[in-house]
Design goal:
Layout: H1 3-13, H2 16-34, H3 42-65, H4 67-72, H5 87-106, H6 110-128, H7 136-156, H8 162-185, H9 187-194, H10 199-203, H11 205-222, H12 235-257, H13 261-286
Length: about 290
């Protein structure tokens, strides 16, 4: 396999788009608190690297432990299932990512170090145990989407800004909806490979997707909070957030009408794009 193909497979293993989104979340919260950000400041650089490296390790560990389930779910898009990345590479990525993220957090401050250490422990618990339990695994992943805002705030200032707390809530609600969809998408393989007790396997796919839709509706309502802080809403940021909310609303309504495996996969992927668009809108609102 040529280097560009190997690099592409590795970036898919670590879900680089997730890492970029988490780093952007940190940057947004730092900008909200400081009103300006010096990108080449050591503190800023460290604070962006910590969540990216943690995410890299967590996804690599998840794919390593889920090879059997992913094969049953026919997830040929996963590099380990397709044989494009070796198991050894995945393990090295796990060790490197966790170790370096915790080490870099140590040089920020004690609170950031505690967050990095605690979420590394929770990440390992999730990959070995929590992901097979109803809602608890979903809640961990959602919290890992929310904590970068808190982390970024505390990396540069000791008290939490109300807007940062609101952003964390928005991320958590959107994450819960998306993760329940993922549980429904992977239910067959999870049950066969690990005898999981995820929410769709406990209460059924239809009921689970209704709950996911409710989280998406709550996400839409919560995005209005961010415009209640500091300044009057401006047009361009509102258009970005409106686009994200419209997409999430469409996804939620589709989940209530169609529950094919293809639609679940598309809903999960499109919701991530919508979240990124929403984050861009929030960032612009803070300028």
């Amino acid at each position: 396999m040529k280097f560009p193909e190997k690099l592409h497979a590795f970036l898919r293993l670590i879900r680089v788009e997730h890492g970029i989104m988490l780093a952007l979340a940190v940057l947004i919260s730092e900008f909200i608190v400081l009103r300006r950000v010096y990108l080449f400041s050591p503190v800023i650089i460290l604070s962006l690297l910590v969540p990216f490296l943690h995410e890299m390790a967590s996804f690599a560990l998840n794919d390593f432990l889920d090879i059997k389930a992913d094969k049953l779910n026919k997830r040929t898009d996963k590099p380990l299932v397709g044989g494009k990345i070796s198991k050894q590479t995945a393990i090295y990525t796990v060790i490197f990512g966790y170790a370096l993220s915790i080490l870099l957090a140590y040089f920020l401050n004690p609170v950031c170090f505690a967050i990095a250490l605690g979420f590394a422990a929770l990440s390992i618990m999730y990959n070995y145990w929590l992901k097979d339990l109803p809602l608890l695994g979903n809640a961990y992943i959602s919290a890992s989407m929310a904590i970068p805002f808190i982390f970024g705030n505390l990396a540069v200032f000791p008290t939490l800004h109300p807007a940062v707390v609101s952003l964390s809530l928005i991320a958590f609600l959107g994450g819960m909806g998306r993760e329940i969809i993922k549980s429904a998408e992977d239910a067959f393989g999870d049950r066969k490979a690990r005898n999981s007790k995820t929410l769709p396997l406990v209460i059924g796919t239809e009921n689970s997707l209704k709950i996911a839709s409710l989280f998406y509706f709550a996400f839409i309502l919560s995005t209005l909070l961010i415009f209640s802080f500091d300044k009057k809403p401006t047009l361009i940021p509102m258009l970005f957030v409106l686009a994200a909310d419209t997409a999430v609303l469409g996804i939620a309504l589709c989940l209530l009408r169609s529950r094919t495996h293809h639609n679940l996969s598309m809903a999960r992927k499109l919701s991530l794009i919508a979240f990124i668009i929403g984050l861009v809108g929030v960032f612009l609102a803070c300028l």
